[in-house]
Structure formats: structure tokens, C-alpha cells
Amino acid sequence: MTAPDLPAALAPDARLPAEPWNDPKATPLIKIRNVIKRFDGFVAVDDVWLDIYKGEFFSLLGPSGCGKTTLLRLLAGFEQPTSGTIEIDGVDMAGVPPHRRPVNMMFQSYALFPHMTVEQNVGFGLKQEHVSRREISRRVGEMLELVQLADLGRRRPHQLSGGQKQRVALARALIKRPKLLLLDEPLGALDRRLREQTQFELVNIQETLGLTFIIVTHDQDEAMTVSTRIAIMDRGRTVQVGTPGEIYEYPNSLYVAGFVGDVNVFEGRVVEAGKDHVTVRSPESGCDIYTDRGIDAVPGQEAYAAIRPEKIEIGKAPPADARFNCVTGRVFDIAYLGSLSTYHVRLATGEVVKVSAANRSRLVERPITWEDQVWLWWPPSASVVLLS
Amino acid sequence: MSGQPAQTPAPYVSPGPQTTAFEVLERTTPAFSFYGVLARFVQWLERSGRTLVIALPFLWLGLFFLAPFLIVLKLSFSETVLAVPPYAPLVAWLEENGLSYLTVRLNLSNYLLLFEDSLYVRAFLNSLRISAVATFLTLCVALPLANAMSRAPERWRALLLMMVILPFWTSFLIRVYAWIGILKPEGILNAVLIGLGVISEPLTILNTDIAVYIGIVYSYLPFMVLPIYASFEKMDPSLIEAAVDLGSPPIKAFWTITVRIALPGIIAGCLLVFIPAAGEFVIPDLLGGSETLMIGRTLWLEFFNNRDWPLASAVAIVLLAALTVPIVLFQRHQARRGGADGAS
């Protein structure tokens, strides 16, 4: 999936609770207020304000070094914020050491104890609470059942595959039923196929146990697949927080639009802005771009029109109405991806536009090929106008 | 490609009628050609080169460890005589009734004396005790030191490591002598303590067991710190975080996770301190009192003062045997664990 449509986990789904982030009466499980974390003059987390609700699968998404892991470690208690407060379930976490927090973490390296068996690893958290040996063994058994490792309990970590280690780490972090589970790049070390399979298992486990997960990832597909909401981070700040659909369809900046999915950007100036529409004139596109969603802008202001490749139609004949949202050019490259093809079309202005189209018919019957003159057009709902 | 007619080069030149039998042989069996011989030589080198590489350290050990050991072993079964060298030969020709005998006389009295005379037994036990206590004290100093070093910022670690190794650049003997200046009644330590008003009378430390402990802990600390630091340093720091995250207080997590995983390094460090400390001569001689009885010193006295080489050799052999036991046990332990900790 290179150009994801609205993922299944995001579609209106009866299983998901009514979106608590839109409910003003809901109390968040985690309140992060103006949190700043500085290391030796370097600001890792810069004034983050977040509310995360019970039952959420919340993703912190961003490139490496954007502060997402530091934010996770602040929640776990391995780091103390320079300023700001973190509340978990109504309790201020300032000064609460990590071993007393109702939070567990799954580490990127898995951090399995090499001298213990799988069972001892999973039971470690309960042993610290002096739970009886019989109770530990019962709950470890249950947990191994849940992650489908029931017959590997006596093995040691070095005898496990990467996927099995990942499950042990998950089981170990889940056994205390934490109010909040933090996952630091949990699937980063797995190969692609296993990763996709495990993503769905993670969502299933999270829903089965009714827990709240916060996951750190730099993989946008992963965040889109598993999350209820995503916070996009850049240089220590959260630049946009929203559902995967909101993030993908209505990015609030070029940074977000470019980070999640592929996008064509036309730079231009606002010609006309209303409550329900904006027109952008871009010399790069050679046509006016009409968007049916208003923004707060004045005519003449610099703006960017962003259009996803899969929202553009491609054809060898011009559309009926070619006044708006229609450009023409020549195909100079075609990337065949099996299920879909991405056409790289060079406009007369020199700008290259990417268009992806599903390959509904077989390749031999492909109607559009290299050097063809093509028209590209899109509906007013396809584009987003961004001011930065 | 398609325009060219296929011209396959002949892979094998068939022997024409005018070629000699030898030429055919040379062409078909590489063994007889120059390159064939070269190839065979290289093959031989490859096969025996491995043996050569392994043989070198064996040769070294044989020459500089096994041979002296055998000489000492032989000496320990000799009789003491007042001569140069001060021992009787083991092997001798005996002429009797016109017949010649090759006689080998093994004298066990040296070993018997070691167990009969309580001096040696006491010296042995005392050495083991002092060495064990000193090893424990060294471990107590080394654990927090190695832990702090492994958690220091990366750019500091090389410097800290350097500081641990730096004392080796000065002679061991001089460093032990320096401790006399520090510990003696009118020495630096007492002067400082009296100056600070902590004590009014100088402490008697020099020429006691305490001075020996201080000397051993100081001298052997690097041997303990380095292997422990190496095991701590390569450990994934998230292991201890995972333990703390799962509800283990940090101190407990340090013992149950960090120390437990570093156990092979800790045992190695303990052996590296315990074994040489048990046979230590310089430190008890310079810092210890006349009543500090250690086997290394006994050995020295036996050898140089009493010129009883055979007895001194017997002491050395028994010491070696006694110290081999913990090493063998440790190696067995390591072998049994196999790769369990290697692939952490």
C-alpha cells in the first residue's frame, strides 16, 4: 500500500467507542500539559499539549530525532520533564519513579532478560508484586496463550526468532494490565509481511484487553493502520493531531502532507477565498485550482494547493469542463506496482505531477503509455489549500 | 548478438598425433604442470598453515610454561643437599655387583613435611583467607566503579578507562613502597587524620593485615574493574529499564539483572584477583607484619633464606594445584552455560 485509502481500522466502525476526543465531557486518561524537555541546551520535546483517552491506540509519528521517543520516556518516567506536567488517570506523575507508575513499556530492542526463560520473563512483573507462584504461572500461561507462544515457555530468548521475541516482550509488558502501554517502535525489527500481520494482532489484543496504547513509530503505514489518532511530530512539537483520515485528507501543513503519503504541491497565490471555497492561481500548474473547502486567507496571499496522486483522473481526452482543476502534459515515466500504476506527467511548465490509477485491466491493454499527451483533472474536493 | 554465428571456443584440446605422452599428461592432469605443483603447494600450506597457527601458542606455552613447570615438579621430588645446585639428582646410575642400574629416586618427604609442619598448613589457609577477603573487598570497590564507568557519557569512558590502567605505567614495587609512606605511623594518612582532628593518636596500619588488604585491593583493582566494566558496557541499558518499568526498584534491578548477567565477568575478575593475591609475596613482605603469614612469603624464605629448593618447589606445586581447582570449576560452569549468555 503506497497510497493508502481510508484504512479499515478508521472507517466508521461499531467496535470503536464514540470518538471521546470530540466529546467535551470526556476526561482524558493522560493529560500532557506544556511539557518541555531539554538536554544540554537541546530541546527534545517542545511545549507539547496532548489529551489521550482510555481505549485509544495513539501514535506518535515523526522522523528520527523529532522527540517522539523522549515523550514516551517521559510518560514511562525514565526522564523528568524540564517543565510542564503529565497526569495519568488524574494523578500528577511528577516525582513518581518508573517502578511505581501504572505504565508499562515495550522496548524497541525488546530488552528480554537473557538469563531467564520465556515464562520467567513474562512473569517478572508479577514477581515484583509478590504474587503467589501459582497465580503467576496461571497468568503467564494465559498471556502466552494470548500471544500464541504457549509451547515456548521454557525457551530462552536466544532460542527465539525475531517475531517470537517481539511477542514475549509484548506479553511481558501486558501481564500487569497497565493503564497505559507504551510501545517504542514495536515492529521495527520485523520483516514487512510479519509486520503487517502483527499490526492487526496488536489492534486485536488492545481491543480484547480494553487497554490504552501509545505507540512510537516512524512508519506512516503502520500508524495509519493501527491508530485511533495520530500526533505528527517535528522537532519536538506536535504539528497535527487527528484521526488517520483527518491527517491524510486534511493535513494542516506541507510538512504533514508530505510526511503522510504522496502529494503533488502547486505553489501559487490565492485569487479568491470564501467561506466554502478557495481559488489558487499557480503558474506551476497553468490552471486555477478550485477547492471546495474554505480557509482563512486573503486574495494575493501565497498558498500551496496539495493534491494526492490517487485523487487525480488521467485520460487521453480533455474532460467536459476544463476551466478549473485541469492540466495537460506528457507521460515521461510509469511506475508499475501491480495493483496500481503511478504516472509521472510533465506539464508544459516543467512541473511533474504524479498520478496513480488502479490497474483494473491487464497491462497489455494499457491505454496510456510513454510520451502520450494526457489530461489530468480532479474534483474540487480533491485538493487542500495550505498556507505553510 | 544474433548476427554473429556461434563460435564456441574449444574447451578441451584433444591430443594430436604428434604430441608426446608427457604433454598429454601435463595438459590433462594439472598435477604435473608447473601450476599444478604450485596449486598443490598452496593447498598443502592451507591445510598445514592452520596447524602452524595453532602450534605457535602451544610451542610458546610448552617452552615458557610447561618446561619450567616440569623442572619445578622434578625439583620438588629431589633431596636437599649442601651443594651447587642445592639438590640431589633424581636420576642416577648405580653400579652394584658389576651391574649398572638406572635409578629414579622420588623423594616424597618434601610434600609430607608440608602437611606435617603446621607452619605450612597455616600459611596456606591464611593466604587463602587473606586472598578471599581481599578479593571480596576489591569486588565491593570495583562494582560501583565499573557501573559508574559504564553509565558515564561515551566521551568520558575512554578517559576513565585510562585512569584505571594508568597506575600500571609505574613499577608495581614502587607503588607498594609508596603505600609505606602513606600508612606508616608518621605517614601522610595519619598526618591528615590528626590534622583534621579525627584521631589524636596515630593509627597502626602498616605491618598489619589491614595494610595487606589495602595493598592488594589497590594493586589488583584494575584486574577486577576491567572484566566487570566490559560486561556492563556491552549490556543493553534498556534491560535494567525494563526491569524497573515492570516494578523492580532500581537497586534490586541492579542485582537481579545487571549483576546476574555480568556474572561471568565478575567471576573472571574475582579469579584474576584471588589467584595472584594468594601467591602474593611483595605486598605481605613490604606492608604486612611479621605475623602476616602468607604462602608466597614462606616460599621465598624457603628458597632464598633456607636454600631449600626442593621444599620451595613442593610449596609452589601444591599452591598451583590448589589454585587450579577454582579455574577448572569456572571453566566447566562456562562450558555448561554454553551460548546462553553469549546471545543476549
TrEMBL record, chain A:
The lineage of its organism: unclassified sequences, metagenomes. This is Putrescine transporter subunit: ATP-binding component of ABC superfamily. The keyword Nucleotide-binding applies. It holds the Pfam family TOBE_2. The keyword Mitochondrion does not apply. InterPro entries: AAA+_ATPase (IPR003593), ABC_SmlMolc_Importer (IPR050093), ABC_transporter-like_ATP-bd (IPR003439), ABC_transporter-like_CS (IPR017871), Mo/tungstate-bd_C_term_dom (IPR008995), P-loop_NTPase (IPR027417), PotA-like (IPR005893), Transp-assoc_OB_typ2 (IPR013611). Keywords: ATP-binding, Cell inner membrane, Cell membrane, Membrane, Nucleotide-binding, Translocase, Transport. It comes from metagenome. One of its GO terms (molecular function) is ATP hydrolysis activity. Residues 30-260 form the ABC transporter domain. GO terms for cellular component: ATP-binding cassette (ABC) transporter complex.
